[in-house]
Amino acid sequence: MDRFRMLFQHLQSSSESVMNGICLLLAAVTVKMYSSFDFNCPCLARYNALYGLGLLLTPPLALFLCGLLVNRQSVVMVEEWRRPAGRRKKDLGIIRYMCSSVLQRALAAPMVWILLALLDGKCFVCAFSNSVDPEKFLDFANMTPSQVQLFLAKVPCKEDEMVKDSPARKAVSRYLRCLSQAIGWSITLLLIVVAFLARCLRPCFDQTIFLQRRYWSNYVDLEQKLFDETCCEHARDFAHRCVLHFFASMQSELRALGLRRDPAGGIPESQELPEPPEDLDGGSGKAHLRAISSREQVDHLLSTWYSSKPPLDLAASPRLWGPGLSHRAPIAAPGTKLCHQVDV
């Protein structure tokens, strides 16, 4: 399970290559889903349009939501948009850039489905067979309006006895398929032209704003990811220290109750136990994590991180970073030694 969790976290990273790979994977899954789907139009005047349009639009909506779900940057974008301003002002340009990036990747798979459906034509024929103008076809001249509507509803079902081997059915079906494919190829050409113009014309303009927004959007994503990883590291270290201190404190309690026994006869010993070592943390040197040594401090740190993130200026005065960092060690004068002691 840990391997799957690590793989999922890696796929949720902000790397553009990984996210582009996920988009291509969703597009490939879309093609496979559509090719294996068994299309069955109800061939009823009241339900043809509902079924055809539902099949044309509902799977793209589900794929769009899946694209938003697997993209970590979508959650980071909403968090950046809704967070309190605090000591760091919000840049709407960065949020718009992140939104554009998320939407572009999330719309890839839905557009593949829609284009496949339009180029295939089955959904379009089912949805709009009742909307065809009968006057465009000479075969409907001898039919009553009710017969025409019934016949048009049966057009998607070529095996139905009413329309089987009927030239009128073939003509209507061919007309709707041509119209559907024309719309599909038009959308494809439009997307290609827009992508080509965006790719070719972008270097012609000033890239300063684009580079800045791209940099800070990546920064926001990486900052949140590193904060989560640091919180996990601190939680593990904090739990380890609490467990070690618990076992160390039990020595004095067992000694007070006289429950310590020798291995041979089980008689309580009068010898004193050694005191627990002062450094139960292994001397890893992570003072920035060990300084947070109580639940109140952890809750205050998390609350400060959400409500008032520090300004993006490492050279600023420490006072600008807010009271949430008051747990840090005091600044000593040159040549003075500080004695650090951590209590849990």
UniProtKB/TrEMBL annotation:
Superkingdom of this protein's organism: Eukaryota
Compartmental location: Membrane
One GO MF term attached to the UniProt entry: voltage-gated monoatomic ion channel activity
Sorted UniProt keywords: Ion channel, Ion transport, Membrane, Transmembrane, Transmembrane helix, Transport
GO CC list: basolateral plasma membrane
Lipid bilayer topology: Multi-pass membrane protein
Disordered as annotated region, ranges: 265-286
Family: Belongs to the CALHM family.
Protein name: Calcium homeostasis modulator protein 3
